[in-house]
Model the fold of this input.
Amino acid sequence: MDTLDNYRQIIQKILTEYSQLPYAYGELERQLIIDKTANHYLLLTPLHLIILIIFLILPLRLCAFA
Done:
């Protein structure tokens, strides 16, 4: 069990450090989402956020006006 906790801490530390690196273009930032209970880790870059807006959020808003 201690080994699993160590792996979790290592993964979280690496992703946290990476998410805090400055982005090359402008004031964009990465978003880190961690679900400790399910051991899910998600690192979103600006490109991922744009894709989410185009394919998920925008169609939902368009459906609301239909």
